[in-house]
Design a protein that fits this description.
single chain, alpha/beta, ten-stranded mixed beta sheet, 6 helices
């Protein structure tokens, strides 16, 4: 992965872990709740999936950054539909990365956070069949998921802000990486809970019928100003990190 924007070394080559050096230690923008980073990919014409899944847009470099962000996170958040469609499994599959997290004082696996108002998580994804995974379901429903091998706990909140604050208090979560989908991402943004965005720009035109953008919410508070914090290039792909400026 080549750094495309850097004041000191425009041609420096680095891997995804090096690109994120120091990211975890940055201060939280808001006291009392975790820092929330959205990680998404989009084509040049704004599509976020190919044949219904985001995997058709990604490359090995995108997957490297994706895995590195997970490795730095206390929790990985996604909407129930994303978890089912993308067939989420254990969040970190590499034993060496899990060991490094433990050595750094983190849990071997990030907390898996599923946002669901209806608990309609069917068919059960591999994540819930993994005995080493710890899952927290956010939603106002009083029900429970069908029994699974994973450890499953609940935050019975309709408010994403209150749910995030409970994540911080109950589970010591300081950094959440949200992986979508667009409705959840839009809801986080509309509530003023989205602190930064990692966006991969895939060098591809998908076409087809218009679909959702990576951040979808009918909010009157848009647009917002962003601050570029990182820009990397790998081949023809661009990887940007933006901070969301306070509104």
């Amino acid at each position: 992965m080549t750094r495309a924007f850097h004041e000191l070394a425009p041609s420096a080559t680095l891997d995804a872990r090096e690109a994120l050096r120091g990211w975890r230690s940055e201060p939280a923008p808001v006291a009392g709740r975790p820092r929330v980073a959205l990680n998404m990919i989009a084509s040049l014409d704004g599509r976020i999936t190919v044949d219904g899944r985001s995997g058709g847009l990604g490359s090995s470099a995108d997957r490297e950054l994706f895995r590195s962000l997970r490795a730095e996170a206390d929790a990985v958040m996604a909407g129930a539909r994303t978890v089912v469609v993308e067939r989420y499994g254990p969040l970190i599959g590499d034993a060496e990365v899990r060991a490094r997290r433990v050595n750094d004082g983190l849990a071997a696996q990030p907390l898996a956070v599923i946002v669901s108002s209806s608990l309609a998580i069917d068919p059960q994804p591999p994540l819930l069949r993994d005995a080493d995974s710890h899952v927290v379901v956010i939603g106002a429903s009083a029900g429970e998921l069908s029994p699974s091998a994973a450890t499953v706990e609940y935050i019975r909140e309709a408010s994403l802000e209150l749910a995030l604050r409970e994540l911080a208090e109950r589970f010591a979560v300081a950094i959440v990486v949200c992986e979508g989908g667009p409705t959840l991402a839009g809801s986080l943004f509309a509530a003023g809970l989205l602190d930064e965005i990692f966006i991969t720009l895939a060098p591809r035109l998908v076409g087809g019928a218009p679909g959702p953008t990576f951040l979808d919410h009918p909010s009157s508070d848009m647009p917002a100003e962003l601050e570029l914090a990182m820009l990397l290039r790998a081949g023809d792909e661009l990887f940007a990190r933006y901070r969301v400026k306070p509104r």
